[in-house]
Amino acid sequence: MDVKQRTFPAMGSLKLLQLCLCLMAAHLLQSAESMLLVRFDRAPPPRTRFSTAVFRYSTLRPDGSNPCEKHQECSFSCELNGQILKPCPIGSVKLENLTTNTNHYFLLNVKTRSGDTNSSVHRWFIDKIPPTAVITSNRNYTNAEQMAIDITFSEPCTGKGGFKCINTSSCDVMVIGPAQIDASTLRAVKPSIKYSLIVAFSTESAYERVTIKMADDFCTDEAGNRFTKTNGSVLVVHYDRRPVLVDIWTSVPSYELEIDKVMRTVYAANKLEDLEIFLDFSDCVVNSTEEILSVLSANAGTFVPVHTQNHRNRRFTFKLKNISRLSIITVKLQAESVIARSGTPISYVSPVTFLYDATKPEVKLISNSPRETMESNFDVIVKFTKPVFGFDSSTLEISGGTITRQIQGAFKGSVLINNHGKISQGLSICSWKQSKGCCWKSKSGFQHSRSETIFSPCNICCIKLLCDSGVLGNITSSCSYFTFFCKSWSNREWLGIYKCLFCRIGSQQACH
To answer: Which positions carry the signal peptide feature in this UniProt record (predicted)?
Structure first.
């Protein structure tokens, strides 16, 4: 009895719980049958190139019935990008002139007469930008036999088969010029976006221009836009295996000098502003001014870059400073350290040597005749302490006579000599091409007198040598002379021989 009394209430509670569950399930089933579904039967794809969109929509209940079969039983409201559209047609709507290259969304709200509501939204992107690709490489100039290129697409272009390169004749990358694509090297760096290929150049020529470009209209993007080439879709490559040369030259003046019966060009200067060094390359180089300065050397002084107008890295200018007043300067370039844009090292170039001498030359006038003599002939030697240039008849001035002609390095003139006349010679020397006022007098002058009673009034014959000098060196190895013959205006001859000494350079470092 006790057992039955204890178990009976438990069985009653279980039945009560089952009854409650059945009632709840029935209520949920009734609610589900009254739910409203809104669907788009037609809508633009998630990505499209069209600026017009057509939406067709319908409503359903879970049991398949249409709660809006009678239009007056439902109300519709539409939104485009947050803006309410009025009116909102029942069943379909057409949207035109939509903004391109941006995201859009369309929201549809439906409410039945019984109070059921629901909504649905569709998002899409209007893409009017066609896909393209850019061809790049590490350099546009090369001396190699082959070069790697990269093809990078602006977006996946998979329509119409996408990008492909099966062989040389069936490849979406075309080559114009003596080169070809190695299709076996095709590699997808980033699928559908970036690819790499090898281009092989011909070995039959030293220099050629090769154009690499994309094919036309070989794929489409997700929106259906066709592939379009741009400026970046074409790559021009120059392969250049020619040697690259450099010309080292200077603004130092040059002079022609005969040494051992051989004409040589000599470079010499006495102005600091003339000490500029120029490097002219036959092709552009990749080195900076600082890098070239580090491989340019001189045995005297230091180089300072001179920044001039851009010559596409083909000309570099440097100024030489901090040098002594007398120096034989040699400039060298480590050419192998300078690299042309094709990757070719610069060919060897010979050093440049020139003389810088800011010291003034001295002159002495020497004669083998005594100061006063009855002789009608005597020699006057004009001796320079260093070689000079430009000494000729135009540098000789005579007062009291004239020069008539030159015979084998000798000048013949006329002079008027009185019995108590005096002949004086003065020498003035200038650096070649210097401005006026740069002359300085010789440290020694020369005067010569001759007395003879048959001459009447006193006449003075004065000879001055105006000699533009170019400085070459200090070492004297041999001498050559100019001789001037002077003839008196009287019936007697008075012969003066002036020998201008030219000292040759002991070292030929300044000649070439």
So the answer is: 1-31
Q: Which residue has the tokens 């119409």?
A: 160
Residue pointed to by tokens 């439902």: 74
Peptide bond into 87 cis (omega under 30): yes
The Cα 372–Cα 247 span in angstroms is 59
Domain ranges of the chain: 37-126, 133-240, 246-357, 363-507
Residue 268 CB coordination number (10 Å): 26
**Token couple for 366:** 């020497």
Alpha carbon of residue 489 to chain centroid: 71
Q: State pLDDT tens for residues 114-126.
A: 888 999 999 999 9
The dotted CATH code for 133-240 is 2.60.40
- Tens-digit pLDDT profile for residues 249-303: 998 988 887 778 888 888 888 888 889 999 999 999 999 999 999 999 999 999 9
Q: In a 3-state reduction of DSSP, which class is residue 356?
A: strand
**DSSP class of 130:** P
Q: Report pLDDT digits (tens) over 435-450.
A: 223 333 344 444 444 4
Residue 264: beta bridge partners?
Answer: 257
Q: 246: Cβ–Cβ under 8 A, 6 or more apart, which residues? A: 279, 280, 281, 282, 333, 335, 338, 346, 347, 349
Domain 37-126: what homologous superfamily? Immunoglobulins (2.60.40.10)
> Is residue 171 a contact partner of residue 261, using CB atoms and an 8 Å limit?
no
